[in-house]
Design brief:
Length: about 725
């Protein structure tokens, strides 16, 4: 079944890349060389590499690479290339994330540009996989195939990605921005209420025809301070999807918090302003947005015809359809399809980890059975969306041969876990270690609960950042620590009663922190409580809510106890790391949220960056935003000499006023700048135009030079 692929030379790959991508990666290669030579500081380089998805790993001297897979969509060629890159540059396995990304580990920094070139050769980018920008656009993994699909959201998610990728409006925001699309009307596979923007497909009748649109939620998010999104509208026409989103991003960029990173997500901006004021700002922004006909070019090219299947079904062992393992797999992993004669197949991937050899073998299988179509789910599984019914036995046999035919996909026994302390710098405990332990428990002590636990899920995050989305789980665990007699004890904060149910989504309730060793006992106890307290047909979430936090805490308080080290040393070791002493990593900052190390002393680099942004926006015809970037560049330039004079203004307007009074009126600056604060305000208040944007940019450049001169004199 193996497909032979002709290997390209690196020069062939480079020659085939677009000029934009080629220049971007050439620049990154030079930046790496400057950094390794000590010519670029750590803080500056951190921001550079994170923009391309390169994370510092927990282990010194190696990198983790996050790779964007928009809407989780892969073809077989891309999966092969990911596997090949893992073998060539990383650690021979791929990790699937809850954001439908792929992560590779243990990469040498100097190898990054060539790896990115090889990925770009098959249409994969790492650009903006991290940083303070629009992250990977996620979508329902059943999009276009589910029998409850309103319409296929894939082309809309792709259009959103294309619009935002490298877009100047979202390259320098206060924090990250997350977006998802859901196509099913009765399920929520994407989490529309836990994103900054969540779109659910809707249709309504207009003039005797069905018109497409979206139900929209804004301001959701997880992390240490989770919030469910606010309903923006029940119906946003599809042609408004991109301009509306651009307006929201602009308001977030303009008004979002930039000094206190813990409060810099859009959910905090909405809390600060109130939904009414936030709506007013977005609507005003939309009304003033210059119309761009290219917003909706994609609507003319949507193709929703099923893929062509060139089936040559391999033979299978006789009687396979009566095999109990096949029957169990078919019951849990084969899903109904919206097109007659097809099925979706959910491939359970333990902890989201798949070896490169297995990935290549799976790529070959998809060529035969699913038109080379693959989707990553937010449950860290792989979905084949176009499997003919008659091919199911042969597909099962092929998956069984590569150990990917395990039943139980997206059931209680299919646990979601982030990398945790195994590789992540922020990780406190090993989420994978606990997941392995609980999975093994399904075969013994917890196995009796499988029927009872139908519809429940377990999610485990190694830290409060919620990468495994534990606050949306029936039972969630968050890595933490306790102390006993001067020793650190790995622990888990217990959450119960969460779930992604579209409009009815709910966040889990935080209950209590227990030693990690007791986490399996906590799961068993919670299931016992559910069994004993539920009414006929009552869901776990409802029971937990009815009983309340105090009662649940009372039920599991017994698991708070920590024996002394002499009594049981296992309590002082993490799951999966029984030979190691559990220790907290101190003084190391994680990078999940982007560049977390902030420069406290203002420099001219911010002003320079904003001038570059203003120039890029001007070229794109984004005059209003270009004017604002140039204005903030003026303030950033003026801030440097003001700081030297021990003045640290908070706003751009205040900075320009202080510049006049403390630098111009004192003779440190040329008197031509005497009324600069009023001049800039007048320019900002005028109707945006190309002429005005050019003028503002020239002022910003001139003031930059003037402030450099002032700073040299002051120094």
């Amino acid at each position: 079944m193996e497909v032979q692929v002709k290997e390209k030379s690196m020069q062939d790959i480079i020659d085939g890349l677009s000029q934009e991508v080629r220049e971007e990666l050439d620049l990154f290669e030079r930046q790496i060389k400057h950094y390794l030579a000590g010519q670029t500081g750590e803080i500056k380089f951190q921001k550079i590499r994170l923009q391309l998805g390169v994370y510092a790993q927990r282990q010194d001297g190696v990198q983790m690479q996050r790779i964007k897979i928009p809407f989780g969509g892969l073809n077989s060629a891309q999966l092969r290339r990911l596997a090949d890159c893992s073998d060539k540059y990383a650690s021979n396995f791929l990790h699937l994330t809850t954001r439908q990304d792929v992560q590779l580990y243990y990469i040498d920094l100097a190898d990054e540009p060539n790896m990115m070139r090889e990925l770009a050769d098959v249409g994969i980018t790492t650009r903006e996989a991290c940083g303070n920008t629009v992250r990977n656009v996620t979508a329902c993994h059943q999009a276009g195939s589910s029998p409850t699909d309103t319409f296929d959201v894939t082309p809309y998610a792709e259009a959103f990605k294309n619009f935002m990728l490298r877009n100047p409006i979202c390259q320098n925001m206060g924090r990250k921005f997350k977006v998802c699309f859901e196509g099913c009307h009765d399920k929520d596979h994407a989490g529309i209420m836990i994103h900054d923007l969540g779109f659910r497909a809707r249709v309504k009748e207009e003039g005797g025809k069905l018109k497409r649109g979206f139900q929209v939620y804004v301001g959701g998010g997880l992390g240490a301070s989770p919030s469910l999104g606010h309903l923006w509208t029940e119906f946003l026409p599809v042609e408004e999807m991109i301009p509306f989103s651009a307006s929201v991003v602009r308001i977030f960029d303009r008004f979002g918090e930039r000094k206190v990173r813990m409060k810099a997500r859009m959910k905090f901006l909405i809390r600060k302003l109130g939904m009414e004021e936030f709506r007013k700002l977005v609507e005003e922004e939309r009304a003033n947005l210059k119309v761009d006909p290219s917003w909706n070019d994609f609507l003319n090219n949507i193709d929703e015809t099923p893929p062509e299947m060139n089936l040559n079904i391999p033979s299978v062992p006789e009687g396979i359809e009566n095999d109990p393992l096949y029957i169990a797999w078919k019951e849990t992993n084969v899903l109904p399809h919206g097109h007659e004669g097809f099925n979706m197949v959910n491939i359970k991937v333990h902890n989201g980890d798949i070896t490169s050899d297995t990935a290549r073998a799976l790529a070959d299988i998809t060529d035969v059975f699913s038109a080379s179509d693959i989707r990553i789910s937010i449950s860290q599984n792989l979905i084949l969306r176009w499997v003919p019914t008659e091919a199911l036995p042969a597909l099962y046999a092929a998956l069984y041969d590569i150990s990917l035919a395990n039943p139980g996909a997206e059931t209680f026994e299919d646990i979601t876990a982030c990398p945790g302390a195994d590789t992540c710098r922020l990780g406190i405990t090993s989420a994978k270690g606990l997941a392995d332990t609980l999975t093994a428990g399904m075969e013994n002590g917890l196995g009796e609960y499988k029927k009872l636990a139908k519809g429940l899920n377990i999610k485990i995050s190694g830290c409060p950042n919620s990468c495994a989305q534990h606050v949306s789980a029936s039972i969630g665990f968050q890595g933490a620590s306790l102390a006993k007699a001067g020793r650190n004890v790995p622990a888990e904060q217990v959450y119960v009663g969460g779930g992604l149910y579209g409009d009815e989504s709910r966040l889990a309730t935080s209950i209590i922190k227990v030693p990690t060793r007791n986490a399996p006992k906590v799961v068993k106890k919670l299931l016992d409580v559910y069994r004993d307290e539920r009414s006929e047909g009552e869901h776990f979430d409802s029971v937990m809510e009815r009983l309340g936090r105090d009662r649940i805490k009372e039920e599991i308080t017994e698991f708070l106890q920590i024996p002394t080290f002499e009594e049981d040393p296992s309590f002082y070791q993490d799951w999966g790391h029984e030979e190691e002493k559990f220790e907290l990593q101190k003084g190391v900052k994680g990078e999940c949220a982007g560049a977390t190390v902030e420069e406290k002393i203002p420099t001219f680099s911010d002003a320079e960056k904003r001038i570059q942004q203003a120039e890029a926006l001007l070229k794109h015809g984004e005059y209003e935003t270009s004017i604002m970037e140039a204005f903030h560049s003026c303030a950033a330039s003026a801030h440097v000499p003001l700081y030297t004079k021990l003045v640290d203004p908070f706003t751009s307007e205040q900075t320009m006023w202080e510049f006049e009074n403390l630098l111009v009126r004192t003779g440190d600056s040329d008197e031509k700048w005497l009324d600069i604060s009023s001049v800039l305000k007048d320019m900002v208040d005028q109707e945006p135009s190309e002429e005005l944007a050019v003028e503002m940019l020239e002022v910003a450049k001139e003031l930059y030079s003037e402030c450099e001169r002032i700073q040299a004199n002051l120094s």
